[in-house]
Amino acid sequence: MEVFLTLTNDNSFSIGMVGDGLNLSMQTDDTVLEATLIPIMQGPPGAAGPAPFVFNSALSQWVVNHNLGRNVMSKVYSLGGTEVLAEITNVTINQVVVNFDQPQAGYLIVV
Hints:
Order of helices and strands: EEEEEEEE
Strand content: over 45%
Number of strands: 8
Number of helices: 0
Distance between the termini: 34 Å
């Protein structure tokens, strides 16, 4: 691990770190600086990203029942992966409706 510490004449400091972990404290009245390196344990891998809701046929409206029990943020993409502008409405805490000016095929990601 590499730690970069910069002190200035006015007793302020900046710190940068590359590696596993760092605990830093500073007492300015006596100009005492104390740094303690501590290891940081890596947790288990997180869940995979959200599964897309795919619409292979071009439609003017998509209705998605995600059943997450909360309002979600959503993004719409074409089948080629380009983000598409659309009117997205959380109709209920379990359903999103997407409206387009022109029929669109693609997929929706909810988070």
